[in-house]
Design a protein that fits this description.
54 strands; alpha+beta; ten-stranded antiparallel sheet; globular; 933 residues; single chain; 19 helices
Length: 933
């Protein structure tokens, strides 16, 4: 009987996998608008993404290499990123042409038409109009298959351009024989040191007909940082040339092994059919029924986009390149790359815990190896490079979620130690976060987003500690997980930045600025996924919190402050096009209003996902945008990864079947109960034993004028009304005094430059110490600024330029004035004539951020504020191409000059030049301190 059941199970599995779900995939979804996807040939999680490139300019909407609005193809390369907001990849580019070969992109590119373009799961085809060449592409995991049909007779060329898209650091082409070459490319883009090797096999002999090489030129070897070759042969009308390209991250031997394992087929159709079969196998894990073909296309393309990455990043023998650039062999797991964890921890990875536990453990084993070989868990890892893009240490979320759901196959203790290491580093504001229990603007940019996301990650580590029975660690990280309370302003309900001990003002929750990551306070004021009940209590109960959720959807749908292209799909201030909003509609469940969750989710599913090139409302972000659709359409979403449960909504389809790895099938209909959905797939998970932990006492705020003339009133306020307050003051007269904290009884006045420290206490639990510095002005000058600062770069007003407090190299903290597209000009009034012997003004350069040194500085003097004489001109000598963030003081000694007024004029760089990624945009001037002696 048991054998019969096994046979029956295999038979059923084969029937499931035989169903043609790949027919619904439309790879063009997301290739228009801001989706940033690509339409090329891939297999699930494959190393090869063989796709056309229509963008080589590094533009934002060309991050994937392709945009549907384009009409020119430059070539077909073998690596691409799916929906990212930064450009990279485009490795090993080939392009077929005819006639005399050209090696510039203008010469070898070709126009094309969408009417002659086709893409399906595992397959891409297009006609190149310039030379009437039909191109067909398909792939295995590690090998790209090209078929070029030349519809005219004559000289056919295949161009290999190693300078395509990224900066080539090191290139090499080896000629093995007249049908085989090997290629090495080391390049710099987002990943600053990417290695890729390739073996290319032509179906007929080819000869080198043209070359551009700035290194070695030998009969069988070419090297350099400029490297392009044309391989040519005569063809008859209608003749086909097939090309196979295997790639490897480790070396030529790896590429050869990959070719031997996956590149032996000479039948394009067989490989194409196998790619479709591979997709059918993966896509069949979830079956949905609908009469609406567009809905099926959206669903299965969404699943396709989820399964596009992470990408296998090892050879067939398990060899891979580690984070330390050394070669290793994976044993017992598959090694992957492309971890967009700030995005994917929210939905894509939780979806994988449901339908692909094996790959989930492989991902975590990859994380552990990256920790062992690179020093820490990945943040945004790409091709064995850590890009440090985005914030948080969200690999811990993926690990905690897997452990909470009982997924095996990795070392829990090693994973925990790696996670703890990430939380205990002193980078990206973590040192201040650990010491003060929050990050202020004075400590680090994006302080609010980092604080709330670190707090969630700490909760994840606490869940791991609980599972492993580590009581003290659990208590420590659970307390840290409450650090969001230090940035929650109960007066307005928002997560608000703090600066110099106080709330930062002026405050506009719609303002996109450097206190938040790709968002504003609306987007991050619900980011307490680890403690929604605590957030509800902070708001004053369910009714008030419901009103606060209502408010984000009812707010004006315009942001203020910096223009942020990622913020799209606005419903009020809710932004479906970017990840921080993705859980917010589900929060209605926590206040007993699931019907509101249902209404919002259905609206998003109906309106923000379409079967069109612009059918994604924002960046695909390596599967997260699509994972949200897949999960929500099934009636579930992971508001809190790390809990073995889902938040629920009404399923979107009439019937959904989920085939799990243990051979069981879950069936969902619109009538499936909420309780069943909540534990879907994790019904048998037993919770770990709870430990008690202490509640965080929030740090008080200290309010006074940061810069004052003669005196200022200092007021200290607790964030919880019942807390006791204690404070201490230190000024220059206290140098040799031993001072202690005393009870705070009310506002007091200081008349000297003073540091005030304070803490709160509740039920014996002390808060961290709040520190604030209040400075008596070093002068009584006035300043008139004749230029208009960009609103988010105004520091603390005009006096910030003459207050004696200098901004540091991290300009995102808000201490600098920023002026875009204009000269800076200001007049200082000393109030009475003064003898001047030296002048200075300080500027900052961060070329990547469009901030460049002024071309020159002019200093003028006047007695009446109207008639100025030029005292000195100082030219800039810092190269605008220098990407090092740096500060320069333009100071000068002058002959003693009596004047009441000084004018400073800084000439801005102008339009960003062609070599700059923002070419054509206006450069900024950043200035902080102006001084005179």
């Amino acid at each position: 009987m048991k054998n019969r059941l096994v046979a029956f199970s295999v038979f059923i599995t084969q029937i499931i996998y035989a169903q043609n779900y790949s027919q619904y995939v439309n790879p063009f979804i997301g290739t228009g608008g801001h989706g940033h996807t690509f339409p090329g040939a891939i297999v699930p999680f494959g190393m090869v993404q063989l796709s056309p490139d229509t963008r080589i300019d590094g533009s934002w909407d060309g991050c994937s290499g392709y945009h549907y609005s384009d009409s020119v193809i430059y070539g077909f390369s073998h690596t691409h990123l799916n929906g990212t907001g930064v450009s990279d990849y485009g490795d090993i580019m080939l392009m077929p042409t005819m006639g005399n070969p050209g090696l510039t992109s203008k010469e070898y590119s070709s126009r094309f038409s969408h009417k002659n373009e086709k893409a399906t799961a595992g397959f891409y085809a297009v006609k190149l109009d310039k030379n009437n060449i039909d191109v067909r592409l398909t792939a295995t995991k590690r090998v790209g298959y090209h078929e070029y049909r030349f519809n005219n007779s004559g000289n056919a060329n295949i161009i290999l351009d190693l300078n395509h898209r990224d900066k080539l650091l090191e290139g090499e082409v080896r000629i093995i024989d007249d049908k085989t070459i090997e290629v090495f490319r080391r390049s710099e883009a987002w990943a600053t040191n990417q290695y890729i090797y390739a073996r290319i096999e032509f179906s007929k002999p080819m000869k080198i007909s043209r070359k551009e090489v700035n290194g070695k030129q030998e009969p069988l070897l070419f090297t350099g940082t400029r490297l392009a070759l044309a391989f040519s042969t005569d063809v008859k009308k209608g003749e086909k040339i097939n090309v196979k390209v295997s790639i490897s991250p480790t070396g030529y031997e790896g590429a050869a092994k990959n070719m031997l394992a996956e590149g032996q087929s000479g039948d394009f159709e067989t490989v194409k059919k196998q790619a479709e079969t591979d997709w059918d196998k993966e896509l069949s894990k979830i079956e949905v029924k609908s009469e609406d073909k567009n809905k099926l296309a959206v669903f299965y393309t969404a699943l396709y986009h989820v399964f596009t990455q992470p990408n296998i990043n090892m050879d067939v023998d398990g060899k891979y390149r580690g984070r330390d650039n050394k070669l290793y062999t994976a044993k017992g797991f598959d090694y992957y790359t492309v971890f967009s964890l700030w995005d994917t921890f929210r939905g894509a990875h939780p979806l994988m815990t449901l339908i692909d536990r094996k790959r989930t453990s492989d991902f975590i084993n990859t994380f552990i190896k990256q920790y062992e070989q690179g020093g820490k868990l990945p943040v945004w890892e790409l091709a064995s490079n850590e890009t440090e893009c985005m914030i948080g240490y969200h690999a811990v979320s993926v690990i905690a979620d897997a452990m909470a759901k009982g997924i095996q196959g990795f070392d829990y203790e090693k994973a925990y130690q790696a996670s703890k290491n990430s939380a205990m580093l002193d980078i990206f504001g973590l040192n201040a976060y650990k010491q003060n229990n929050y990050i202020s603007m004075d400590d680090e940019s994006e302080s609010v987003s980092k604080t709330v996301e670190y707090a969630y990650d700490d909760w994840c580590i606490a869940q791991m500690a609980k599972i492993l029975g580590k009581k003290e660690d659990y208590q420590y990280f659970m307390k840290r997980s409450q650090n969001w309370k230090n940035l929650y302003n109960s007066r307005n309900g928002f997560m608000q930045p703090r600066k110099n001990g106080n709330w930062y003002e002026p405050f506009d929750p719609r303002e996109v600025n450097n206190n938040y990551t790709e968002g504003n306070s609306w987007h991050y004021s619900y980011s307490v996924q680890q403690d929604i009940p605590g957030l509800i209590a902070a708001h004053g109960g369910k009714e008030k919190f419901e009103q606060f959720i209502d408010a984000i959807f009812a707010a004006p749908d315009k942001t203020t402050g910096r223009e942020q292209a990622d913020i799209t799909g606005l419903m009020g201030q809710y932004a479906q096009g970017n990840e921080p909003s993705h859980h917010i509609a589900y929060l209605y469940n926590f206040v007993g209003k699931p019907e509101k969750t249902d209404a919002k989710i259905k609206y998003i599913l109906d309106n923000f996902y379409k079967n069109t090139p612009d059918g994604l409302i924002g960046n695909e972000d390596c599967g997260q945008m699509s994972a949200w659709y897949v999960l929500s359409s099934m009636g579930i979403y992971s508001v809190t990864p790390g809990l073995p449960e889902w938040e629920t909504t009404t399923p979107y389809f009439e019937e959904i079947k989920i085939h799990l790895e243990d051979g069981t099938t879950k069936i969902i209909t619109k009538n499936t109960g909420k309780a069943e959905l909540k534990k879907l797939g994790f019904e048998n998970v037993k919770p770990a034993k709870d430990f008690k932990y202490s509640q965080l006492t929030a740090s008080p705020v200290i309010a006074a004028d940061r810069i004052f003339d003669f005196s200022t009133k200092v007021e200290i306020s607790p964030l919880n009304s019942g807390d006791k307050l204690y404070y201490m003051t230190i000024d220059e007269t206290d140098a040799n005094k031993r001072k202690t904290f005393i009870p705070y009884k009310g506002p007091f006045t200081v008349s000297k430059t003073t540091q005030v420290t304070a803490y709160a206490e509740r039920n014996g639990e002390k808060s961290s110490v709040t520190v604030a510095n209040f400075n008596r002005r070093p002068n009584y000058w006035d300043i008139t600024i004749l230029s208009k600062a960009t609103p988010q770069y105004t520091a603390n007003g005009k006096l910030a330029l003459i207050d004696g407090i200098r901004g540091d190299i991290n300009w995102r903290k808000g201490e600098w004035h920023g002026y875009q597209g204009q000269n800076f000009e200001a007049i200082i009034d000393f109030k009475s004539p003064q003898q001047i012997t030296s002048l200075s003004s300080t500027y900052l350069q961060d070329s990547k951020a469009w901030i460049l040194m002024p071309k020159k500085i002019e200093y003028y003097a006047s007695m009446n504020g109207k008639d100025f004489i030029l005292l000195k001109t100082i030219d800039n000598d810092i190269d605008p191409k220098d990407e090092k963030v740096q500060i320069k003081d333009f100071s000068t000694e002058i002959l003693p000059t009596e004047a009441r007024y000084i004018k400073v004029k800084a000439y801005y760089f102008g339009k960003l030049p062609e070599w700059h990624q923002g070419a054509g945009g206006d450069a900024y001037i950043f200035i902080d301190e102006i001084s005179a002696k």
